[in-house]
């Protein structure tokens, strides 16, 4: 069966209620498809008009979708009945029969008979009066209703990816802008080695900060990006690990000679090997983040996308850096406070589940490296969609 590309759109209300992580967790545990894209949007009226027009075609075929059409028209606009930010998060999934599987098995019906084992069954609401009139409707997420409308809506998402999406820091207004900042979080590759709830559960922990998601990107970090991103660690490894090198050398050489080796010899050898050890440790973290051994690549090859993926997120709000670091936990998972990301999901110093910027200045530097500083003219999200649409038309 040919692979399809399906989208899942998390509604403004679900984002406002910090249900994002729980929804993603549920979807990742149910879908058979691979998560290949993530993007934030602040829909313009032009975006909503096209989305409504697309869903209206489905409504003409099945009148039961009328509440869904009305919901989109009212709640996806900047001016909406709830007076909340109209941010939406869109995820892309690729796999056999992905569109139908997403609609039927994962998302669930947009009707009153929605089942409790689906996303809408758990996170949406559909209440009607005794006469059958809709009293309240919240779908939680949107998806393509069939292959035709799914393709049409993917084209819409591609067309508006740069105009209405990407880095949407202006999507949330603050009465007092003092101390408002944006922090970068990267969910590391071991969260995506296999299909699991981990990524969603981690996002759910970060929701405790009360911050707003204003950027998202599936990231296949290049070796060149990883070397620049983690460049400051080189000196840290030299300074902090030199003592470890001495200890290891002393242990290995203990008893190797019939005479006692002076301590100054160990110190001198440790100093000589500190640089090599720092580079080895640096290469390990670059390889972990990219899935590629940097020592085997040419400069040109270092610019190619890595073999593993991560999820980069932007959180915005007052004291964002400090709040995120609080719920991230200590670098060493064994020393992290209970309930933090690294305590719950970290394995060791390197595989500690997530990275978060340690200052506003670091966030700026890191965002520029991975392409989440400003919205790019052709976001990778758009490239994924365009590549798929080309194969379908071809």
In short:
This protein has 394 residues and is of the alpha+beta class. Helix content is 45%, strand content 16%.
- Poorly predicted segments: none
How would you classify the helix and strand content by structural class? Answer: alpha+beta
Spatial strand order of the main sheet: 2-3-1-6
CATH fold descriptor of the domain at 3-166 and 375-393: Alpha-Beta Plaits
What composes the largest sheet?
4 strands, antiparallel
Helix content: 40-55%
Number of strands: 10
Quote the distance from N terminus to C terminus: 17 Å
Order of helices and strands: EHHEHHEHHEEEHEHEHHHEHHEHH
| CATH architecture descriptor of the domain at 3-166 and 375-393 | 2-Layer Sandwich
CATH class of the domain at 3-166 and 375-393: Alpha Beta
Compute the CA-based radius of gyration: 24 Å
Number of helices: 15
Gross morphology is elongated
What do these coordinates show?
The chain is elongated. The model has no long low-confidence stretch (mean pLDDT 90). The protein has helices at 12-16, 20-30, 45-61, 66-75, 98-107, 119-123, 147-160, 198-206, 223-229, 233-253, 263-290, 320-328, 341-345, 360-370, 380-393, and strands spanning 3-10, 34-41, 88-96, 125-128, 134-138, 141-143, 180-187, 212-219, 310-318, 354-356. The chain has 15 helices and ten strands. By secondary structure, the protein is an alpha+beta fold.
